[in-house]
Structure formats: structure tokens, C-alpha cells
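Duplicate of earlier report; Exodeoxyribonuclease III input re-posted below.
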Amino acid sequence: MKIATYNVNGINARLPVLLRWLKEFKPDIVCLQELKAPPEKIPEDAISEVGYNAIWHGQKRWNGVAILAKNLEIEEIQRALPGDPEDEQSRYIEALVHGLHICGLYLPNGNPAPGPKFDYKMLWIKRFKKRAKELIKENKPCILMGDFNIIPAEKDVYKPERWVDDALFRPEVRKEFEELQKQGWIDAIRFLHPEETIYTFWDYFRNAFSRNAGLRIDHFLLSPGLEKQVKRAGVDLEVRGWEKTSDHAPVWMELEKK
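Output:
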């Protein structure tokens, strides 16, 4: 079973890229982020035509997350992160798919830091950690996946010294990612590729992709035991080079489903 996460950076603007990727790479379960579309503008028919069921939590102009499944039923659990009823940003969705508990997230960027956006990011992470801890206690196969907007370590960014004050790399943000892992969550990419240079995002400017001046901010965190079923994982680099593509590339893993 192939499971993927992809920040599309505008589902309608990138629809030809998304549909091409779905048809050529054939992931079974996909979490999408940054839809930048309200619910009524989600291209449900186009996604269905290439064989995918979908649920989504959209928002006009910004944010937005979705879960897609190829010929599989999606049982929605919730489409908002618990803990703040006043939070109207569409950044989280949960569902059961083929025996897996899937949590799709688009964690806040937080820049500029310090400031209100960074404060919101930190509060969001704390709410997310609380939900993650609840899920760990359920002792069921679960995957937290999406654009975390967190660079976990220096090896996850080109020229880390340039990012020391950025909200994606500040010490307090990296510490929160470490604390998630201390709950028991396993970083799938680093489990299989502990030292390899792997990036998932490249800015549109300064020829970042051609220079491989990237970041690793799109992650899979696996509940304990699930890592034993992961056989391969990687990044669909060629998709980042397609015309009118996202500044992220799809990230995937292959799970040997028991």
C-alpha cells in the first residue's frame, strides 16, 4: 500500500499536476494540504474520475486539507483539531481508511517570529501534541502526516545557519517535534534513511530546486509498531520539476499492510 502526502499549493491552480501525479504514481491513500479553496470549489468530480474518493476541510483563499483514497472507503472522524473552538483555520482532518487511522495536517508556518503568527503556531502544536498523545494511548495503527512546517534537524535544510531565526527552525519548534517523537511517534523517512539528504520543499526563487537548496518539512509520524511494516519511502522529485507545479514534492511510503 502506497501512502503519500502532498502540499499542492492551490488545488485548482495545480489540478493538472495533481491529476497527472495520481494517474502516474498511483498512491492508495493521500493527504493534501494548502488547498486554497472553499468546499464548493473543490474539484471533486475530477478527482473521482481518476478513481479517488475524497473528504476535505476547505477554506477560501488559504489553508485547506483533504484525504483521498483509491477505491477505498473513507470514514471521517473529525475535520478540526480539538482544543480551540474559536480556531477557524482549516488545517486538520482525521479519518479511518483500510484499518489505518489517518491524521492529515497543515501546521501553521509561524513567520514572522516572534509575533502573533508564531504564538498561534506554538499553541496549535500544543493542541496537536495533546491529540497525538490520545491517539498513542489507543494503541491502534495511526499515521500523522502532512506539511508540519518544521525542519527537525540541521541535516534537513540546505545551509541551516541561514534558518536559525525562522519559525520553521527555531529551537522551541524543533523541541516540540522531538517531544512528539518521545510520545512514541516514529519519523518514517528517518527510520529508513537516517543520514541521507532528503528535501520535500524548494522555494520558487533563486533556482532553489535546480541547486537542491531545499527543506524537509513534510513528514510521516507512525504509531509504535507500524514502522515494521514500512518497506520503502521517498520523494517524487520529478513532480517538483513539472510545469506549474507546487513548491513541494509529494512524499510517499510503501506499507506492507497486515
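The first helix runs from residue 15 to 25.

Merging into the original ticket.
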